[in-house]
Amino acid sequence: MEAVWTRFLPSANRAWDILASGELGTPAWVQADLGFAAPVDPTSRMWDPAAGGGALLDLSVYTLTWAFGALGFPDSVTASGELNDSGVDIQNALTLRYDGGRHAQLTSSISASGPGSATIACSRGWMRTGGGQIPNPRELHVHAPDGARVETSDPAGAGYTYQLREVTRCIQQGLTESPTMPLADTLRTMELLDGVRDQLGLRYANDARV
Asked: Which pLDDT tens digit goes with each residue over 158-191?
């Protein structure tokens, strides 16, 4: 099962429940970022193209998680970014487009720090993550028509517990995949990332074997 552990967190699932309730209306756009200034070290996996280093494969799955949760998979993706001399992407910006003008704007970086938050704007209100960066936020700042509130969660351990519990449940019930993170979602995510790599000119040694 793909290790997108954020999908299993109470805060993320509460965000999807709020959106599904219609309290905030119809989601219209998402903005999300995740970045930090990683010390330049060619021996680190973050800076090693042979290890899939760079912002896209290390960080962008988290910004995408919030876009997918609010808007689903997009109709099209436009990407821009910067590669260093070793061919590692140090920063990228993705625009996901959906029908009806809906869109998501996502940024990932290993060269600059950011708030690491996600904002979901809807037709009747909006919501923003807080209390930690988007892989594991502990707060949801909800701005609804009847007022604003902050919903908090206190995840067990470092946050991986919830996916481990789901793996255990699936094994015990003889399931070959989890409905929370099905194989189809993993494949569609990787296809999207491959399309982004094509736009950025981002290549890995393994590509020559295909």
From this structure: 889 999 999 999 999 999 999 999 999 999 999 9
CA angle 59, 79, 184 (to 5 degrees): 60
Q: Which DSSP string do the residues of 4-40 spell out, in sequence order?
A: -GGGGSHHHHHHHHHHHHTTT-SEEEEEEEEE-BPPP
Adjacent-strand bridge partners of 106: 32, 94
Segment 141-164, tens digit of pLDDT: 999 999 999 999 988 888 899 999
Q: Measured between alpha carbons, how far is 28 from 70 in angstroms, rounded to an integer? A: 9
Which of helix, strand or coil describes residue 165?
helix
Residue 169: what are its φ and ψ, rounded to 5°?
-60, -45
CB-count burial class (<10 Å; 0-12, 13-18, 19+) for 24 = buried
Q: How far apart are the first and last CA of the chain?
A: 23
3-state secondary structure (DSSP) of residue 87: coil
Rounded CA gap, 194 and 44, in Å? 23
The set of residues, in sequence order, having a beta carbon less than 8 Å from that of 11 and lying 6+ positions away, is 129, 136, 137, 138, 139, 140, 153, 155
| Single pTM value for the model | 0.94
DSSP 69: H
Do the Cβ atoms of 175 and 168 come closer than 8 Å?
A: no
Q: How far is CA 210 from CA 52, 89, 204, in A?
A: 16, 21, 11
